[in-house]
Amino acid sequence: TEAEEAQTCFGFMLKLLDPAIQAQRAPEVDLQELRKLGPGEMPKDPCLWGITLRQLQHLRAYMYQDGYFTRGGKLFNPNMYDVNTDYVKPLTDGLGISLAVLYNRDCPEGA
């Protein structure tokens, strides 16, 4: 099954959450809504400059829900370059902030 294959993968597809938790985690934060807030400023607190494991898990769940890990009917195991190119840059384009700051602007967790 796809879940069993995912457990054998490395890189960003490393099993962080089981599929049931991923389905629950993906809607927790709406990245498109955060993006609609427009350009932002770097927070003064350096703890908000980094991404937390929980936020990284959310990003992975969001990508999983979007079908990103399947290409041509086969599992795709992206590296962080792929994730940055395909998700991070489009989400932060024109905002002047990092993905971590995008996450932390609405509901700060701190790293």
Supply the key terms.
two-stranded antiparallel sheet, mainly alpha, 111 residues
Can you walk me through this structure?
By secondary structure, the protein is mainly α. Helix content is 45%, strand content 4%. The chain contains six helices and two strands. Strand 1 (70-71) and strand 2 (74-75) form a beta hairpin. Helix 2 packs across helix 4. The longest helix has 13 residues, at 53-65. Mean pLDDT is 78; it is low at 5-10.
Summarize the structure.
This protein has six helices and two strands, in the order ααααββαα.
Helix/strand class: mainly alpha
For the secondary structure, the number of strands is 2
Count, helices: 6
Query: In which range does the helix fraction lie?
Result: 40-55%
Strands ordered across the widest β-sheet:
1-2
% residues in beta strands:
under 5%
Low-confidence stretches: 5-10
Cα separation of the termini: 34 Å
Largest sheet: 2 strands, antiparallel
Radius of gyration: 14 Å
- The residue-averaged pLDDT reads 78
Order of helices and strands: HHHHEEHH
Shape type: globular
Topology:
Blueprint: H1 2-7, H2 19-25, H3 31-35, H4 53-65, E1 70-71, E2 74-75, H5 80-92, H6 99-104
Antiparallel strand pairs: 1-2
